[in-house]
Amino acid sequence: MGVSRRDFLKLCGASAATIGLGATLEAPALATGTAAAPTGDGDGYGMLIDTTRCVGCKQCQLACKQANHLPTDDNPVALSPTTLSIVEFRNISTEVQKPIIKPVKKQCMHCVQAACISVCPVGALYRTETGCVAYDADKCLGCRYCMTACPFGVPKYDWNSPNPKISKCVTGCMADGKRDKPTCAQACPAQALQYGKRQELLALAKARIQENPNKYVDHVYGEKEIGGTSRLYLSGTPFEQLGFRVDLPTVKLPDLTWNAQSKIPYVIVGAASVLSGITWWTHRNGNE
Question: Is the pTM of this model over 0.90?
Fold first, then answer.
């Protein structure tokens, strides 16, 4: 059966449309920096959180709320759109009648190579020169892929807002990340939070462990987990008892997510081509 001139032109138009779709899909990725797996060398800034020094005063939590203009009259029990940093209280005792409560600060871990950045299709999440994983609400599509990708469950979606967005610690409370401390670190009266170059903080953490082997667990949490994080933790208690995930690999998660995400434009273009072909085939007889 021959192909009429009109059908041939339609088929050419459909093919051009799918090629244009492919270009459209890949162009934003190139423009926003998500066309390649996001990189981070771990040489940015970070924070060392020594849980053995934390007294549970919640001053860091309060300072974060004030700096980000969030309600301070609530009593949060977990991270949320209105609580970007929280002090959790963990019972590490095995005896019900004798609880041993340990406070620990939790917030975004600002991963060196963040999975949330690698899955964001529009570049709403990005890494700054200081090592902070920042967020641009104006670019956000609300797809919430970042919530699924984050191994720490940090990004939260404001379901109660008429204009919902993702909420997370972005260290926006600093005037200049290279010189000033985040508000939470400034507010800590026990100096449990120290801000500075990540590599210097890592060396400091290891020195504390070496000098006080009976005081600390022989591990700096965040040094290697999922390729490393900008928030490093010291503890005198096994990290799993403080609610930390200890099953995380040392592989950089974007190495995994990018392998899948980079194929998405081609899958969509392929599907569009197939559907265009089916449409042409099913309607060819009626147009002859």
Answer: no
